[in-house]
Prior knowledge:
Blueprint: H1 15-26, H2 31-44, E1 47-48, H3 49-56, H4 60-73, E2 76-79, E3 88-91, H5 93-97, H6 99-107
Antiparallel strand pairs: 1-3, 2-3
Amino acid sequence: MSRETLERSDGERTRAFERTAWELFGTGTGSDTRCRLVAELEANGPLNANQLASALECDYTTVRHHLERLSETGFVVTDGPERGYDVRYRLGDALARNWPWVDTQWLESTSR
């Protein structure tokens, strides 16, 4: 899915955004970890994968896997250098602007 389809020109989320959020946070293996990951980025980001792994008490390779998945959709983007150990991640613009909706729909039930 292209990042352009996540929001209309007026900034309103699209059905594509809602569908992507459902796929990432509402269903499937790893959705709980992705919810915790984006909640941590929203509260304390930008963070690198090692900082996220420590904060979530999760394996580094697991965090990297979920960051790649979230990055593919534009829900998470890099902040600064895009390669190397200190790549920092933050919420993508569409996810940041729609944070209250995402938080209410998917994250309130997740232990943070």
